[in-house]
Amino acid sequence: MGARTRIVVPCYNEAPRLDTARFDRYLGACDDVDLLLVNDGSTDATAAVLDELAGRWPGRVEALHLERNGGKAEAVRRGVVAAMSAGEAAHVGFWDADLATPLESIQVFVDVLDRLPRVDVVLGSRVQLLGRRIERKASRRRLGRLFAATASLVLDLPVRDTQCGAKLFRVGPRTRRLFAEPFLSRWIFDVELLARYLDEGGDGGGIYELPVDQWEDVGGSKVRPADFVRAIGEMAQIFRVYRQTTATRRALALLTAPFIRYTGVGAIGTLIHYLILITSVEWLGASAPIGAALGATGGAFVNYWLNYHFTFVSARRHRETLSRFLVVAALGIGLSWLLVRLATDALGIHYFVGQLAATLAVLVLGYLLNRSWTFRVDAGREGSP
Ligand SMILES: Nc1nc2c(ncn2[C@@H]2O[C@H](COP(=O)(O)OP(=O)(O)OP(=O)(O)O)[C@@H](O)[C@H]2O)c(=O)[nH]1
Ligand SMILES: [Mg+2]
Asked: What pLDDT sits at residue 299?
């Protein structure tokens, strides 16, 4: 009997999608792979489905139920930590529950680790080579290419596909450390994993990209449109926290600083404000004050949404952050009025100069308040502002 392999399967609201018959078939056909199914606060019958499957395979399948939903990254991390500490597993990995990559491919991943002692990490890669069956929506494939190119730049590592939900690790001190701390990112933790591996002194020679024989884009994805915007913010965070390895990179990191992201979002919000103003006045026949109010509201919500997902990559509840964001926005309007008044009435400065100074002051104050209060980002997370 070969060394044991333990596979973590993150499961969130998978009751309708989990093909337990395929799990049974796989477990019946191989005896040196165990499964750890991780459910974190699913709201459907996932917990019962997982317990049933575990009940049928005592000693081979375990269901781990985490108290509340923390996202795929944290579910995988908690699962891998448990799988690595449960002893006698030489390899630990994670696999998407939708079996986009069939369980039968696990052995091919294990063979790579057995054959190449230098390799610590095997990444499944969805490359459409002859003889492979890779079924991906064209839009996801193109987005995936763009994402992989960005990840390669950020990591300074020519990686072809970071997001395939099938990965295997050789259990050892370095790979244990990869999962020791919670991830910054919720969805693109795969990229963060590689950044941590490089940060740990690993290099490209320890990572192996394995083109999978089969991959199928299974419907019912948990990825939301906001996650794509969030991924950009998370990528900036990963670059800033792990990959400032050269002077050029440190200079580039300045461009991705949260304050720069905040300013950029402010500019986008202002642009939306003016676009809605002009559209509603020129084309919809609204009066200028109505157009201005609609524009300000639209601009504020775009501003809020982008700052939540892109600038601060927040995980806090909207009902907390939105009300605070509006308070900060109101404070900004008040401060703007006060400063323009001060400039014109008290100091006799031209109103436009006053407005420019006010805009700058509101930008800096707004950033500091939103960072420390609204989205309450702890300083350690991204180092300097
Ligand atoms: N435990 C847990 N698992 C999650 C969570 N979100 C997603 N997952 C699991 O992560 C895996 C991938 O999710 P999918 O919805 O298939 O995502 P996808 O669209 O295929 O995205 P890719 O992983 O990029 O292919 C599935 O096994 C999900 O159940 C979560 O919040 N908690
Ligand atoms: Mg999937």
From this structure: 92
